Amino acid sequence: MSPNVPAPVVTIDGPSGSGKGTVSRLVADHLGWHLLDSGALYRAVGYVAGAEGLDLSDADAATRCAQTMKIRFMASPDGGDTRVLVNGHDATDELRTETAGAAASAIASIPSVRQALVELQLGFRKAPGLVADGRDMGTVIFPDAPFKVFLTASAAERAQRRYKQLKGKGLSVTLDGLRREIEARDARDASRTVAPLKPAADAVLVDSTGMSIADVVAKVLAVVQR
Ligand code: DC
């Protein structure tokens, strides 16, 4: 690949619980491409702000956290999930909670926080290619990506998937509570003025309701191999 030609990117955007994380990882593994979990960046900013006892609505303080935060994604030594190191601390487990998701969603509506994370995200674009998972990958961060997917599923199914996932980790959650949280987060992510959750005009829409992970992965790979 010529050094002047940017590495190809597959963007996979969509609401929480649509399966983006799992699908993006499997697609990246299949293609042998890098992976950007952009939600983890917003979660990490929320985590740092929380650890420093900052008010999440304090835009200047949150922006400072985003500008100075050091984040590293590391393969797990035991072959499990990728570990996320935030300012030197393994914050993988803390970042996965619903509380971290809600904090990330709140902090993600601050334009200067989003701006502070742009360069970091662009840096993930390296040969042989990148799979970028998020809300605004195809619309704002990689608008020139040759492959764009918008992955969705009904709120009921997304709540059900999250319920199984969190219960499997031994967390105490209710299906109703999760569905309400998912709907509130969707509404906030889709209605914010900066980089709202919406499909890029040139994205392929995939509704994964009732589909297996393997079928969704095959659909995304078909978009790349088109
Ligand atoms: O994908 P996730 O659930 O880890 O994302 C957590 C929150 O971060 C999500 O509710 C909105 C925000 N986010 C965003 O605004 N833009 C992105 N590209 C990724 C996540």
- Level-2 CATH architecture: 3-Layer(aba) Sandwich
Bound ligand species: 2'-deoxycytidine-5'-monophosphate
* C-alpha geometry: globular
* CATH topology heading: Rossmann fold
Calculate the mean pLDDT score and round it: 93
User: Spatial order of the strands in the main sheet?
Assistant: 2-6-1-7-8
Output the radius of gyration: 17 Å
Question: Low-confidence spans: pLDDT under 50, at least 5 residues?
Answer: none
Largest sheet: 5 strands, parallel
CATH superfamily: P-loop containing nucleotide triphosphate hydrolases
Helix content class: 40-55%
The class by helix and strand makeup works out as alpha/beta
Question: Can you describe this structure?
Answer:
The chain has 226 residues and is an alpha/beta fold. The chain has a single domain (9-225), classed as Rossmann fold, CATH 3.40.50.300. The chain has 11 helices and 8 strands. The chain has helices spanning 20-31, 38-51, 59-68, 92-95, 98-107, 111-116, 118-122, 137-141, 155-168, 175-191, 213-225, and strands at residues 9-13, 34-37, 71-74, 83-86, 89-90, 130-134, 147-152, 204-207. A 5-stranded parallel sheet has the order 2-6-1-7-8. A 3-stranded antiparallel sheet has the order 3-4-5. It binds 2'-deoxycytidine-5'-monophosphate. 2'-deoxycytidine-5'-monophosphate binds at residues 16, 38-39, 42-43, 101, 104-105, 108, 134-136, 185, 189.
